[in-house]
């Protein structure tokens, strides 16, 4: 027997229609490329999304077709997030920091019909034009007077395109499992892999994120995590579910620019990778400014160091929330929201729980498996490969030749190594390809660099494994010094003592001007390994 509930599909146009009706006065604030601040409401966004849907139809974009976006977080990108899936096309968010070869690969592989591109990224496309012959045209996300001279064929100005259209457009209903968007994962080897999100997954995940990141309708939310990466952790959708004020930072993610928005827009909640928080700390330290409005921040994408969590809590009175997720999980998959069992054990237990990647959220079931594929006990000690399944987890990559990461019984192998304890807290020990094996025992490069990054002279730290004739591999600590500091190896080693096992201490410490960062601010370990491929430890 079926339930007697109404058939109400979980699809993005239903969310937009709802938000236009009930949250139409809620503000969306964007810092534009031009540098000025743009303000409008969810009502305005709904109207312009309907104009955009008409423009897409005029361009000949059909249901099931893919349209690329190369854009920062801003109101025009929001309109694309709604109008493309709303008209049953797919957005393909493209990371502007891909190499030319990867850029033309993902555009061709996803079969992008058009590309909507920020004016500053037009040269990227001009550069690969001959390798993307199937793209029918380009739309530059700018005002008419900012339209650049370009060799891109069939290039339109976004505002001119919209101005010609009426806002009379009727969103249709369709199957909630219809594809809504695509995002490629960087992949350390081979070509990037396409993850295809469904409407159902995005809507469920948008609601789930609000619950698990503890966002309320009173919040003013600044997603620093880019909308070209993992749906901006679905915050562009969560905002319309809840009627939250959104503040979209555009291209300027340096500490001063982020602080300016946090302060001026009274932002109470923000989300980003550790690198952006470090840049904010540096700015605050220099300027002596505080964060009076910010209540909570989510740190994800890379492990949050204890020193970062403590600085937020103790120095700025901001509650840090750690989160784990992947491109393949639509947005967050786990987070250590506070339980009464932890809260009653006091500050140290709370801090220790915050340093874990948290508990799997409902709809994202986790398990740890050993080398034989058998599930390991939830004892906080047995480390193995983290596997996940759920309503917002990929079941396959787009047009992939091999889908070895997906098991026949419906699990996705994350490539992360982790433990789970009896309360369901997940602790990542490393990425499978990023462990250092010394004398047959594993060293966690994540733990080592987290411990080192708290040293007062260091702006950033990363650990890679270097070949060692006796131990196979030993850790090399690569550090970026804070301005005006010099490297004191003894001091760093003494700082690490007691924080990590003695045999984990790095065999050498070297400085770098900067660490190679990916588009989302994560250290690119493969690039770092490449940089140090001819390095050998002193005396070895
Ligand atoms: P991506 O698909 O680019 O978002 O990368 C996902 C990967 O980033 C995960 O598989 C983890 O290896 C890593 N990651 C994400 N969040 C965290 C976290 N909180 N702590 C440690 N690693 C993380």
Question: N- to C-terminal separation?
Answer: 73 Å
Q: Please tell me how large the radius of gyration is.
A: 23 Å
What ligand molecules are bound, each kind once?
adenosine monophosphate
Question: In DSSP terms, counting alpha (H) and pi (I) runs of 4 or more, how many helices?
Answer: 17
Task: Outline the secondary-structure elements.
Blueprint: H1 12-22, E1 27-31, E2 37-41, H2 42-59, E3 66-70, H3 75-86, E4 90-93, H4 100-110, E5 112-118, H5 122-128, E6 137-141, E7 155-157, H6 158-163, E8 179-185, E9 193-198, H7 199-212, E10 220-223, H8 230-233, H9 235-242, E11 245-248, H10 255-264, E12 269-272, H11 274-287, E13 296-300, H12 306-316, E14 319-325, E15 332-335, H13 340-343, H14 347-355, E16 358-360, E17 364-369, E18 384-390, E19 412-420, E20 425-431, E21 436-438, E22 441-443, H15 445-453, E23 458-468, E24 472-481, H16 489-496, E25 508-511, H17 525-531
Parallel strand pairs: 1-11, 3-4, 3-5, 4-8, 5-6, 6-7, 10-11, 10-12, 12-13, 13-14, 24-25
Antiparallel strand pairs: 1-2, 8-9, 14-15, 15-16, 16-20, 17-18, 18-19, 19-20, 21-22, 23-24
Helix pairs in contact: 1-2, 1-9, 2-3, 4-5, 7-9, 10-11
Adenosine monophosphate binds at residues 185-186, 230, 300-303, 322-327, 357, 414, 416, 428, 431.
């Amino acid at each position: 027997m079926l339930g007697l509930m109404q058939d109400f599909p979980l699809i993005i146009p239903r969310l937009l229609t709802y938000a236009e009706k009930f949250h139409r006065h809620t503000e969306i604030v964007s810092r534009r490329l031009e540098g000025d601040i743009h303000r409008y409401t969810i009502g305005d966004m709904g109207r312009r999304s309907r104009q955009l849907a008409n423009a897409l139809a005029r361009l000949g974009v059909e249901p099931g077709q893919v349209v690329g976006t190369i854009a920062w977080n801003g109101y025009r990108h929001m309109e694309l997030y709604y109008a493309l899936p709303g008209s049953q096309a797919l957005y393909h968010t493209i990371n502007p920091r891909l190499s030319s070869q990867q850029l033309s690969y993902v555009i061709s592989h996803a079969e992008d019909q058009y590309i909507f591109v920020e004016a500053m990224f037009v040269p990227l496309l001009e550069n690969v034009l001959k390798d993307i012959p199937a793209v029918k045209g380009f739309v530059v996300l700018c005002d008419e007077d900012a339209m650049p001279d370009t060799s891109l064929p069939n290039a339109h100005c976004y505002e001119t395109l919209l101005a010609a259209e009426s806002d009379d457009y009727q969103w249709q209903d369709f199957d909630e499992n219809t594809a809504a968007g695509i995002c490629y994962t960087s992949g350390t080897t081979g070509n990037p892999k396409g993850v295809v999100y469904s409407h159902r997954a995005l809507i469920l995940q948008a609601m789930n994120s609000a619950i698990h990141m503890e966002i309320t309708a009173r919040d003013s939310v600044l997603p620093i995590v880019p909308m070209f990466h993992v749906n901006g952790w679905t915050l562009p959708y969560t905002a319309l579910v809840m009627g939250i004020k959104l503040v979209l930072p555009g291209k300027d993610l340096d500490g001063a620019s982020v602080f300016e928005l946090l302060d001026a827009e009274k932002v109470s909640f923000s989300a980003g990778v550790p690198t952006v928080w470090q840049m904010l700390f540096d700015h605050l330290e220099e300027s002596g400014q505080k964060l009076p409005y910010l209540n909570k921040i989510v740190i994800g994408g890379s492990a949050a160091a204890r020193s970062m969590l403590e600085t937020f809590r103790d120095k700025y009175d901001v509650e840090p929330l750690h989160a784990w997720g992947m491109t393949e999980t639509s947005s967050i998959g786990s987070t250590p929201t506070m339980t009464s069992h932890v809260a009653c054990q006091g500050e140290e237990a709370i801090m220790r729980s915050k340093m874990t990647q948290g508990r799997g959220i409902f709809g994202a079931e986790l398990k740890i498996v050993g080398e034989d594929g058998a599930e390991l006990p939830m004892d906080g000690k047995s480390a193995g490969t983290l596997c996940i399944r759920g309503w917002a987890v990929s079941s396959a990559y787009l047009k992939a030749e091999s889908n070895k990461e997906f098991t026949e019984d419906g699990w996705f192998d994350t490539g992360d190594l982790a433990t789970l304890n009896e309360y369901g807290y997940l602790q990542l020990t490393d990425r499978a390809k990023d462990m250092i094996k010394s004398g047959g025992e594993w060293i966690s490069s994540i733990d080592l660099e987290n411990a080192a990054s708290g040293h007062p002279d260091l702006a950033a730290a990363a650990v890679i494994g270097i070949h060692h004739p006796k131990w196979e591999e030993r850790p090399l600590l690569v550090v970026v010094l804070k301005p005006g500091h010099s490297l004191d190896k003894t001091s760093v080693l003494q700082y690490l003592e007691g924080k990590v096992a003695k045999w984990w201490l790095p065999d050498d410490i070297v400085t770098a001007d900067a660490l190679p960062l990916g588009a989302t601010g994560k250290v690119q370990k493969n690039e770092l390994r490449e940089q140090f491929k001819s390095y050998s430890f002193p005396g070895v």
